Amino acid sequence: MTLSDRIGANEVNGTNPAKSATILLVEDDGPLLVFFSTVLRREGYTVITAANGQEALDVADGRPDEPIHILLSDVAMPYMGGIQLAVNLRQTRPDLLVLVTSGLPQKEVSDRCGPEFKAEFLAKPFSVSDLSGMIKVLADTL
After folding, report:
1. Which class for 88: exposed (0-12), middle (13-18), buried (19 or more C-beta within 10 A)?
2. Residue 36: its pLDDT value, please?
3. Percent of the chain scored above 90 by pLDDT?
């Protein structure tokens, strides 16, 4: 189902996917991890947290029957970065929506990802409203 199809289907049946979306939040900066998870939980999302890509992969692998709708991940982290994490998670969760964040320019991140990699991008530093808005856009496509 395409992004447009998902948005159209939600408008027709009146569902509110944001209230049921589960986000895997991956950030190696501890205070940011706590802050972002608090913000997203207050928005009504279920949030699973991890401090790096490897930990996130382990958490997701430990929940094979539980949905993860959105991956929100920093690009550069120890052990495994957000791009490799997304590639690995999509092997078992092909419909996973991805939002990567980075202090690097978007062009540099896009070059690292390659043309086949599909993800949204949020440049650091960003505001709470930027984060909430991007997540809402993604959740509204579920």
Report:
1. middle
2. 96
3. 70
CATH number at residue 82: 3.40.50.2300
Q: Give the range of the structural domain holding residue 117, as residue numbers without chain letter.
A: 3-139
| Count of domains forming the chain | 1
Residue 3 in this model has a pLDDT that exceeds 50: no
Handedness of CA 96, 7, 20, 23 (dihedral sign): positive
Structure tokens at 138: 């993604």
CA distance 59 to 107: 30
Please classify residue 39 by burial: count the beta carbons closer than 10 Å to its beta carbon, then call 0-12 exposed, 13-18 middle and 19+ buried. Answer: middle
pLDDT at 98: 96
Give me the amino acid identity at 84.
Q
| Contact (Cβ atoms closer than 8 angstroms) between residue 135 and residue 23 | yes
**Those residues with Cβ within 8 angstroms of residue 17's Cβ, 6 or more apart along the chain or in another chain:** 10, 69, 139, 140, 141, 142
Q: Global pTM? A: 0.85
Cβ–Cβ under 8 Å, residues 19 and 46: no
